Amino acid sequence: MSGGMGTAELSASSVAGTFLRLKLSLLRNGVRQSKGRSAAFVGSLVVAGLFGVLGLLIMVALRGHEDGPAAGVALVAATALGWAFMPLFVGAADETLDPGRLVMLPLRPRPLLTAQLVASLVGAGPLFTLLLVAGAVVPGARGGAATVVAVCAVALVLLTCTTLSRTLATANAGLLSSRKGRDLAVLSGLVVAFGIQGVNLGFSVLADEDGDGLGPVAAVAEVARWVPPASAVDAVRAAGEGSWGFVAYGLGGTLLACGLLLLWWSRTLTRLMTAPDASTLQAAPESAGARGAAERGLAAWLPEGRTGTVMRRALTYAWRDPKTKMGWAMSLGMGLLLPLVFAVQGNGSVYNACWVAALLGLQMYNQFGQDYSGFWLVAQTIGTDRDAYLELRGRALAIGLIGLPFTCVVVVGSAAAFGAWGSLPDGLGLALALLGALVAAGAVTSARFPYSIPQDNAMKNVAPGQGALAWFSIIGGMLAGGVLCAPVIALTVWAHAQDAAWTWALLPAGAGYGLLLAWAGLRIAAPMTAARLPEILAAVSRS
Amino acid sequence: MSVRGLWKRFGEQVAVSGIDLDLPAGRFVGLVGPNGAGKTTTLSMITGLLRPDSGVVEVAGTDVWRDPVAVKARIGVLPEGLRLFERLSGRELLTYLGRLRGLPADEVDRRTNQLLDVLDLSGAQHKLVVDYSTGMRKKTGLAAALLHNPEVLFLDEPFEGVDPVSAQIIRGVLERYTASGATVVFSSHVMELVESLCDWVAVMAAGRIRAHGPLDEVRGDAESLQSAFLGLVGAHGNPAGDRLDWLGGGGT
User: Fold this and answer.
1) What is the SS3 assignment for B79?
2) Most exposed among A71, A350, A388, B232, judged by the fewest C-beta atoms under 10 Å?
3) For the segment A327-368, what is each residue's pLDDT rounded down to a tens digit?
4) pLDDT below 50 — which residues of chain A?
5) B-chain residues within 8 Å CB-CB of A388?
6) CB of A153 within 8 A of CB of A236?
7) Which residue intervals of A372-505 are DSSP H helices?
8) Alpha-carbon distance B13 to B229, whole Å?
């Protein structure tokens, strides 16, 4: 490196300034790119601000409450936990933190570290955290000394949280940039979805108990106040009470933790920027292992010809493709969980188990989008309406192969759980009719309103600009499914109003009607698909 | 194969503006042009993957857009961008496509084995396509296009991003294929490659055919196809001129 200008050492502050400007430009350009994005960005800022202020106000209101300081400690512990795990779910949004983009620049780890830390303090997340943490120290801050400690604690906690998040993200960068890691990240959406249902259940249980609900929070705080960065918040309370040992422990411990995290971050960053990327290494030839054997076993059970071929591919994808797998796990898991949530909330009924049929029927939507741009391979083999019909029927059968027994199990299971054997036949009939109706509507919307599913982004299931189309087709399709089912629903209601003895007949009627609907839907969708192949291909390969 | 009055617009932009072209059968045909010339759009419309705004495409006497069944059985396509079913292994992908094409199971097995072997993919046949390198993906795409023994093969940039070893293998397979009387149409912007492989070329620029015919005719008096091509598309000399004088020489 002789002669060039690139070897001049840059100072930490100039690098930090550059990064700050870079981050602001990235934010600004992200907003400029499209109206939807700017709305999303402004929306996220507003939401972060509102919830942050709300949290702040709640904490201010808790000033004087005996458990107030404990609530602050628990809040900061939860916030730190969020900072630790959120980047793994939402990851890779911040390009200023991507070591891969910076590896060619002549930057030393220390200025780079400072710069990245400064850059990551800008944004909606840090603003939200600042408001929350500021709120968390309010209940404990009594007196001048405590106020000084509180200000130090807020700064320290914010710094520790961002450092924690960056350190873990950097440590996991190898994982996040590998295929297996990205697959995992897609599935992490499940954690969020099921977590929401879990919280929902938790609230239902909490609401049943009397009292102000701060008891469990105090118990959490009792442990959390020994762990940085929550210990810094406890130091504020300790300063108000004059227990200086606790103050020293709380602030010192958090400072130490922050330092250790910085050290770890610096080490992993250096390693990341100097070690080779594993993705270019030649992998050893793989032998046909258990996977091949298992699939040959499956193939033996499937029908011959196009139907079996299509079913086999659909089932393989349900297992191997992370987005399809997530769709299935969501349908199956939610189908099982929703009746349970309804039951805990006191709305337990066999009819609520029909949700499982609706969720499974949704799998039929946007079938060709699920092929991504590999759809051209399918399009090359579809010449006649018959080919299109077999293709769609194979996909519907693959859904039925899993969906049908699962629906039966869930409906029978709920009937057993509520002891409502009397409404089993009509409940099951209704569920099967719904499944058939949604498969029919799904087949038609797949052909008429296809949209592409971006493969590179774990969190996005619709390409930019096609969101309205996706929502329209799903909501419209669900409404259509409901309308198609109306005769069976009306019949069920009428049978119950009459207190008829023939409610058992609703099972074969519903099942038969569902089958008829599914068949008709496939018949209508097939010529549409065959005639619109180039249009479908164009729609699903947009990114 | 013949093309008459082929047009395609994307919004304001005209990608292909009225192409008329007759390609000879049983030849190695090269479609060359700079990026954005409309090569991919043209090939997509010829192979039935993109609906033209107007125009007629006939492959072996059959209208592509009127009788797609007959045409799809007779052509093989390797589109740009290597879009495949990423979560199938190479072998599963070929088996799946062979079955969709209506070939019997044991025939699909036999052809898949041979193609994987010849294309040097046997070692990776059980790896998922998503983990393949560019060369492996191109070779898998070529195998998928050849599986049903088409009469005409359309390849969009088959050698782009491919290492020399894989390129040689692809080349060998294509030469073996055309020797039996089949037609290969491929697009490329590597002139040396087109010059050494093709006996017939068509030069495209800005959505139009600038020249077409046997290689020697298109090359004319120019010393190579490269310089003939640059002349045809209107690119000359050193664009930098006296600028960039600070570049190189070890100064600062």
Assistant:
1) coil
2) B232
3) 888 888 888 888 877 777 776 778 888 888 888 988 898 889
4) 1-7, 91-92, 210-211, 278-291
5) none
6) yes
7) 375-379, 385-418, 424-448, 467-498
8) 24
What SS3 class is residue B153?
A: strand
From the list A360, A180, A170, A368, the residue with the least C-alpha distance to A273 is A170
**Strands B183-188 and B152-156, sheet pairing:** parallel
Are B127 and A380 a contacting pair at CB < 8 A? no
For residue A283, what are its two tokens?
Answer: 């992998």
Which chain B residues have a beta carbon less than 8 Å from that of A369?
none
Q: Name the residue among A225, A247, A402 with its Cα closest to residue A328.
A: A402
Q: Do A338 and A357 form a contact (C-beta atoms < 8 A)?
A: no
Q: Where are the domains of chain A?
A: 22-274, 302-540
Residue A380, min C-alpha distance to chain B (Å): 6
Distance CA A528, CA A88 (A): 41
Closest chain B residue to the Cα of A381, Cα to Cα: B101
Cα–Cα distance for residue pair B189/B2, rounded to 1 Å: 23
CB-closest option in B128, B130, B250 to A3: B250
Which of B73, B86, B128 is opposite residue A374, by nearest beta carbon? B86
- Give the CA angle between residues A113, A116, A121 to the nearest 5°: 125
The position carrying tokens 């805990």 is: A344
Domains and CATH numbers, chain B: 2-233 (3.40.50.300)
User: Nearest by CB to A292, which of B96, B101, B126?
Assistant: B126
Phi and psi based region of residue B67 (left: phi greater than 0; alpha: psi -120 to 50; beta: remaining):
beta
pTM more than 0.95: no
Dist CA A515 CA A519 (whole Å) = 6
Structure tokens at A109: 């780890």
User: Token match 């891969």: residue?
Assistant: A100
Residue-wise pLDDT for A495-534, tens only, equals 888 877 788 888 999 999 999 999 999 999 999 999 999 8
Distance from B109 to chain A by nearest Cα, in Å? 13
> Which is it for the CA torsion A57, A63, A67, A71, positive or negative?
positive
